[in-house]
Design a protein that fits this description.
Number of domains: 2
CATH class of the largest domain: Mainly Beta
Strand content: 15-25%
Bound molecules: heme C, copper (II) ion
Order of helices and strands: HHHEEEEEEEEEEHHEEHHH
Length: about 325
């Protein structure tokens, strides 16, 4: 099922808890199917019973109330509760060896820090993880309650201001898996998505190497102009590009913004055109986004700036 879903759905992949590609999501899917089948059987038995009574094949008995009204629901619900407790406990169990990725929900984007106590590399709006290795998402919020959900990988977990929640993840397939905020967090809550990119472990290690350190140099005169516009226009007040300006923290880290699969937290394709549109009028693309519009930038500056950002891979 998951194979065909992946090949036909292109860049963003299917966002479905019924096509699991992670240990947690597979367990939850099994539980869902198990519960549906179990209660389906109960339902059919009940229909047969009602039919028997209405058709006059069964004469009413007092003990039916004890058996069907108390014993049967008690036993079936207890059994299923046992299963779900065990499964939920297993999939929320943290592996002490896991790679920790701190994800902070913000209106309306995701701040991502890989291995905060060690490597400490910052990204945004996309989470890259290795296949088959244990990962723990350390979930925080800096404003209101958000919730992180990647249906194909595991269950959802709230991001609550002043609290730290942990969500273990283990992906069993490579690919791009869409996730989204699953707790209403304001005007653009439905526009707060992201992607998890699952790589083979050796590709992940190479990606780690590539992504550490400073942003790519501006290779042409136009890109250099774009970098200068970034600084002159005041973008560093909120954004960091490592090696260029490193103080801004109010907006997503842009050191490798051009390498992301999407712009604006899972909303638009990442390319120079969408970048230029975003800079000129962010709130037209995402109502309530906490970034001022730069529609006063002269055309050539906007072009150079968006070309520079697109080149940051
Ligand atoms: C007042 C703070 C602020 C300033 C100044 C600012 N931004 Fe932003 N920017 C943000 C915030 C906040 C977001 C996230 C919006 C969202 O998705 O909800 C953002 C998002 C972005 C994104 C999308 C990033 C992604 O991962 O998709 C780009 C690109 C961007 N800004 C470029 C710029 C550029 C270029 C400038 C200067 C011309 C600039 N910003 C100035 C706050 C700011
Ligand atoms: Cu949210």
């Amino acid at each position: 099922m998951s194979e065909t879903a992946q090949s036909t759905l292109g860049q963003y992949g299917v966002q479905s808890a019924l096509a699991p590609e992670g240990v947690g999501a597979t367990a939850i899917n099994g539980l869902t199917i198990g519960m549906t089948v179990a209660f389906g059987v109960v339902f059919v038995l009940l229909l047969l019973f009602v039919w028997g009574v209405l058709a006059g094949k069964l004469a009413p008995r007092k003990w039916w109330i004890w058996a069907g009204g108390i014993a049967l629901p008690l036993v079936s619900v207890l059994i299923l509760m046992g299963f779900s407790t065990v499964i939920l406990q297993r999939i929320t169990l943290e592996d002490p060896e896991a790679l920790v990725i701190e994800v902070t929900g913000k209106q309306f984007w995701w701040d991502v820090v890989y291995d905060p106590e060690g490597w400490s590399m910052r990204g945004a709006n996309e989470i890259v993880i290795p296949k088959g290795r244990p990962v723990t998402f350390r979930l925080k919020s800096s404003d209101v309650i958000h919730s992180l959900w990647v249906p194909k990988l595991t269950g959802k977990m709230d991001m609550i201001p002043g609290r730290v929640n942990s969500l273990p993840v283990m992906a069993t397939e490579t690919g791009r898996f869409r996730g989204q905020c699953a707790e209403f967090c304001g005007l653009s809550h439905p526009k707060m998505a992201f992607e998890v990119v699952v790589m083979e472990p050796e590709d992940f290690d190479a990606w780690m190497q590539r992504s550490s350190g400073e942003a790519r140099d501006a290779a042409t005169a136009e890109l250099t102009r774009g970098r200068d516009v970034f600084v002159e226009a005041g973008c560093p007040a909120c954004h960091t590009i490592r090696g260029v300006a490193e103080t801004g923290t109010l907006g997503p880290d842009l050191t490798r913004v051009g390498a992301r699969g999407s712009l604006g937290a899972g909303m638009y394709r990442m390319n120079q055109g969408t970048l230029a549109g975003w800079i000129a009028d962010p709130t037209a693309m995402k109502p309530g986004a906490k970034m001022p519009s730069y529609n006063h930038l002269p055309g050539p500056d906007l072009r150079a700036l968006s070309a520079y950002l697109a080149s940051l891979k």
